BnaC03g29910D protein
Amino acid sequence: MKKIATIFLFISLLFETLNGVKAGFLCINGTLLANSSYGQNRNSVFSSLASQVITNRGFYNASLNSVHAVALCRRGYERQACINCVEKAIQLIKNICSNGVESFNWNGDDADHVSCLVRTTNHSTFQKLDLGPATLDESPLNIGSSAKNMTLFRQEWEATVNRTLEAATVNTSASVLKYYGVANAEFVEFPNVYMMMQCTPDITSGECKSCLEECVTYFRDVSWGKQGGTVGRPSCLFRWDLYPFYGAFANITRVPAPPGPLIPQAHAISVTSLKGKIIAIVVVPTVINLFVLLGLIRAYRQIKKSKEETSVWTGEDCISDSQFMLRFDLSMVLLATGDFSPETKIGQGGFGSVYKGILPSGQEIAVKRLTRGSGQGEIEFRNEVSLLTRLQHRNLVKLLGFCSEGEEDILIYEHVPNSSLDHFIFNEEKRVLLTWNVRYKIIEGVARGLLYLHEDSQLRIIHRDLKASNVLLDAEMNPKVSDFGMARLFNMDQTRGVTRRRVGTFGYMAPEYIKNGRLSAKTDVYSFGVVLLEMITGQSNNNYFEAMGLPAYAWKCWVAGEAASIIDPVLSRTPTNEILRFIHIGLLCVQENVAKRPTMSLVIQWLGSDTIVIPLPTTAAFTTTELHKIDAMDQAKGEAGTLSLNKLSITELSPR
């Protein structure tokens, strides 16, 4: 009778899988007897585990004699759903792992919008990272696509992994369930991808990241090509699918759940040896037929859904059809920003306002709401989506996604808490916070971001509007280059170009670009040199603009042997020779002779070494007079793309 009951339990588990259950179960056999003290103590712990999880806000660590148990629910859980999930996991452990000393069960039910963990051991696991063994639950269906398309899909899948991993491990939430992240990615040629990661909150952020990375690696190595999967480890869980699950994506319309795996992994459950001929003859064919039927229904609906969504805004509107895009619902953006309430507004740009928001996952975001009806704002919008979705670097601001509904064009970025560099370097009170070490880190970080754009990314990009206000600072004062609305995309074998209309900000634009429209990576090098000199002096280039400009003034002092006179007094305790070397590098960047300006790779070498011999600079650019002449000429001709001090004007875009 016991064997028959176990078989029926196994059959019920299979049909639960068909109804959307995602479970990772592991039982480690021991010498536990049903009437042993360990078993009795474990039952005692189990009796109050579900209620204690609720009392302790979603996570509870219990011990009784030699029994140690951990219970955890997904962030945002509903009270009763969490209780039900924990109780179901406990029952599975009792029934399937009655003789096992150790077990863990990542139990998830899509229908109940919940996931949870219950783990038991005969030793304390609190505040200890445990990576194994792992459980794997994969979709029986393959993605199925050409090698070229799968390469693109994998690139964007990996980008979604990185976003989810960061949200799960760098979350500043005060919640007990602090290690939790979700992300969804909308592809043009592929179904949408939904991803979730979670760790037990008793380990460190670094340990959580290691655990999740191990889960991702395990899926890549074992199940890549499947339409979703779940990898569970005692300390963390990673799941992704082609539909919103667990209620983690509540603001996204749900679609039918795909079928689960045929049977649990052999290493993940201890009762597989009990299947027998009855299961093989009766259950397996039935399950296979159900899998095939559900798979066909799901594939049809997903293809239909993908076509409907891509018809809203196709790749021809903004980027190539193969380009990955992440779309946010307007309702989610409104919820995150309190309907764009004035209290959440943190800035005003040339093309709209910027708001701080908080996603349901707890992740903080910066939301740029472009001015309605602004043709130039629409160009900036499309340009940023086109470029930033294909750029990943620690010194570039991350575009998390966009929203384009009705008249609303919205860009969603990672939130960078310390605002922009100009709020520090040009502020008398805040500038004292910029020690030499901090300024060095910012200068080097900006240089590395530009090097990535010019040489190391899959694209060749000229930023065209580098300035202090477009350098954002994170919580650790790491710089992130932002605002790619005017960036110019070059072919990989193209080094320079000519444009009839110039865009950017006076004082930061290279003279050859202003006078002749000549554009190259050296255009950004000039802008970098201006920003570097501003970092040294603590003064804005605008303060010198009406006279000769900061580059020209610094050059004049250099020639007179008085370069030290321009150093910010805040840096009085820093060795003058080191700062003079940076002035030297800055002057090399702002040379009027384009050919003599260094590349960003060379700049980084110079910044990092005081033993490399640096060439002497030649005359810095004197551009103020020419700027006003060109501005007046453009106005006389009635051209739309006139330049203006500190106002960004987009007149031409050519990503190709």
Q: What stands out?
A: The longest strand covers residues 100-109.
